[in-house]
């Protein structure tokens, strides 16, 4: 490509609403242009990156035996009514009516349509397993679209769906995808982690997220530097502490703590470590009658160490809380504890509560908690002596750095990531709701076992930038750079030697299949270099009049601090030897 | 590709609603599946064809210097309000509201958004000319979607838009695209014509349609077998007849024609050629007041030869009718002609009308027309003698076979076509309505001169099938076949020799870059051949046990009536020599 024939639209300034670096740099580099909230034009420079991402994904999906098709962007609502999502999903599902007032949705994903395809086309176990995927425009009407392509409303997603005879086969299909995702992410040239994830509301029990590591990521990733263990914060298990509980050393003591209603304040006031305090969190669950009205409510007390945070996903798995819970109301707290929040504890309750004790709290001795009396805490609290041994002990807290790794291979660390891919074992959630069956070997209809597998195609470039940039701009990995090499001739219009050398080098690289752009715009060196550093082309060759006449060119990788002189005759080979894609 | 890993979903029967052969065959071949009215899944077999079409279009667009980008499917209505199309377009424009009740459209084309991009990014004449294109999902909420991909609601279109400094440059950009379209259509391997088209309501005066020739096509194409001349029926000019008008030979005679109200009936009744009769068509035009109410109306009489049809596009260009016209109402006809339709004519009117005479009628002598009296016609009618010489003579009829070619190179023929591409000089229609300007060399802002250029990516496979099929199924040109070659082993499970030969041949062809599929499904020969003939793969190699053991294979092109024996060792070279893409 010659720059004069392309559309290069770099900007000095980022738009005021660009909060994150990828949004700022993609806009300044002319890769995207905002058309509306969360809706972007993919400009020529950005589209080249997106197409390279698509190509890698497509090649690896095909290699893994998946078959590509395309499902419509605008889908009849009837399929979504069948699965129940037309009613269940909130306003993020964009609903639209056609000229005949029939309901449609603009697809956010395609579980329903692909399940319809399966129930029509996959009639026999002989056709299984099958994995169908598409790379297609999606729409989610986000309440607060932001961060450019990171959280847009219209985006491109690769969504794949596997169909299997039984659970064992479905798990093999899942594994094939998880492997394919590793190959895809390896090829992108990004630092990433595959982390165990909670399968959440969508059902099933196997789920991994592919997270691109970036300090600015929205997600916390828990990993073990000494092993392969990685999980997101929701999922990462806090092991039960090793060894026995220490014996009680101190008496139970009623201690005035005037105005000290947080564990941190109490610990400081008493001069004890925060880790010796215990916080009380009060939840409630409701039983509903047939009309959906609250028939009865139960109050729950959760005990966590003062320096730990509650993990809502884990709490949602505790038996009794797994059908939904809420925080208790002030009257509920008052009626059970006889006290306002800030001084609550498990001893001296007015009415009994369901007690759930974090694994860590269950092995503490001589701890501090609220006294169920304003401005009073208890110190020297001990299980078995001051209150009964806990019967309901569970992992209900977030991991913190330094916790033991669940695989026993050391201690855990935490870093930030951006979720770009997700592999998910779905089970029969959709095949049951949509009555999608095949005839098994025994001649009987069975529900498909399904998995679903997404990659955020347009999100990936943004994540790559969050991970790879400096103060001058983007630094693309070779595999997804809009161009791999840029040839920058200086004074091409004045020096026939520079022009000849540039044209020759450009043709040479093109012939060798290198994705090269020749900057023939006639910009001054400063502006030209600034453009390419902003755009982030990883390899640059500069040709100047004096150098060319002396048979020299200059090579500089985007991460190099200075250029290297290379004989002109060898520069094509020099750059080719440095390409990683 | 191995068939067992792909998704082959052929059907014995076409759906009841499939009216045209391409819809029937694409459905039976498992290329598309209907999801809703005019909305289709592109199944794996069909998507391969679509992707090949896309690739050819993309390569030639790039070669022609156009630059690819992607504009959103869901577009904010504000741009469409700016151009006026949000209000002007009918319900075929799909409008949708987001969660904040803001208006959006699902793009049917992208003139507005690309014009917005141009006014932001193309600031200087130095950046011109520029041609921006996308290959993207479009939606048109057709009143009556039908014919499968031929007239769907959701479809993929390549839409390109050129931006130029002035009209001369815009016409060069137009010409570059018209040439690129010829290369694209040549590469598809289809019989097509580029025909002059009317530029219609969109404005401008240069327009060509690319029509794939097919007997089932919706459009009539007028062409000259002795020259390059081709135009669609709306556009093709009917020349004024050569030579002088014959002298009157017969007297004007009032002739009773009881119950004969059509030219054909009258001609038969009188025993004269239909070409000696003249039909009267009565139109009306309205003048509106400021409130849009009809202030005054004018009645027009159009005279055409009895065997000719009125051309509405040409009528719409007659001065006085070019701001819109309608057919006259029965009361209007009665009050001007004193007679009901069927016996109308230009002689003996009750009130004057505006007369428009077709070129052909203007040179007729001794003609027949209605007598403005029920059951009466006039014969021996002559200009100058029985009524004044016509003052308003125009080409207002459709061409018929045998008319003289406008280029003087013989007579015209008519064939049917399917419109697949359109190149259009737009002028400043959009740049003016959206105030899109650049700074010209003189430092002054000027409106862009624009052109737009479409290709119906998903319509093309349907058109290709309308042109290329037989009673057994589709016959793809090599360039856009889902697979170019199919290897059909017979009894692969029973004969290790067949299996080895098939695997070997498959690998050999793959290595040579041939797009080959190996049918390893284990189907019986009859069902296997029927599938591939239905799907329309152009080249087939069959391997049987006896043949393989004798070192023989069989090659058959989809158009051949029988297979040819080819030595097994040479069959790869044999088939390769026959590939055209």
Features:
homodimer, ATP-binding (chains A, B), Pro-tRNA-synth_IIa_bac-type (chains A, B), 5-stranded mixed sheet, alpha+beta, Rossmann fold, nucleotide-binding (chains A, B), about 30% strand, about 575 residues, aminoacyl-tRNA deacylase activity (chains A, B), BirA Bifunctional Protein, domain 2, 9-stranded mixed sheet, proline-tRNA ligase activity (chains A, B), 31 strands, 3 domains, YbaK protein
Topology:
Two copies of one chain form a homodimer.
Chain A: H1 21-28, E1 32-36, E2 39-42, H2 44-63, E3 67-68, E4 74-76, H3 77-83, H4 85-88, E5 94-97, E6 103-106, H5 111-121, E7 130-139, E8 154-164, H6 167-188, E9 192-196, E10 206-213, E11 219-223, E12 230-232, E13 253-256, H7 263-270, E14 278-288, E15 294-305, H8 312-315, E16 326-327, H9 330-337, E17 354-358, H10 359-362, E18 367-370, E19 376-381, E20 393-394, E21 413-427, H11 429-433, E22 437-439, E23 445-447, E24 449-456, H12 459-467, E25 469-470, E26 473-474, E27 485-489, H13 496-511, E28 516-518, H14 525-535, E29 539-543, H15 545-549, E30 552-557, E31 564-567, H16 571-578
Parallel strand pairs in A: 3-7, 15-17, 17-20, 27-28, 27-29
Antiparallel strand pairs in A: 1-2, 4-6, 5-6, 7-8, 8-24, 9-10, 10-21, 11-12, 11-21, 13-19, 14-15, 14-16, 18-19, 21-24, 22-23, 25-26, 29-30, 30-31
Helix pairs in contact in A: 1-12, 2-6
GO molecular function (chains A, B): aminoacyl-tRNA deacylase activity; ATP binding; proline-tRNA ligase activity
Subcellular location (chains A, B): Cytoplasm
Enzyme class (chains A, B): ligase
